[in-house]
Amino acid sequence: MADKEFESAFNSSTGKYDTVLSKDEEKKFDEWRRNNPKNFQSTEGYDLKGYFKENGAVDLTAKGQHLPDTYKKPDHITFSKDSKYHSEETPGGEWSKDDKGKWHFAPSEHNINMHGKDGLKSYFKNSEKEAVLDLKD
To answer: What is the torsion angle, in degrees rounded to the nearest 10, for the CA atoms of residue 71, residue 75, residue 78 and residue 83?
Structure first.
């Protein structure tokens, strides 16, 4: 399958990976999301509704907040086996900590097919500066 075909097959905009909320939950979710910092408002690549449904209106304004991998969608660049959407069809990468406490990410073939090795390298260089990308050549 060509990269673009593969990407569109798992594009989170299809809604396949979005938790369905009741009308009341949706209203509360929208209010909570609007009050979140910008980096915690997007539902692209992350099932934010699923996180909200399980955890409620958690305050995400504190510095250093990080959402768990549980609700990362298959098109998220660091989609991992810790996501509820990890499957044989969409296997995620793996996070691990070394003896010095430094985080490492070993991408799956799925991660590489979705974002390419250069895309992963760029992301880690710019957005995951404290983590190590473990790419097998």
So the answer is: 30
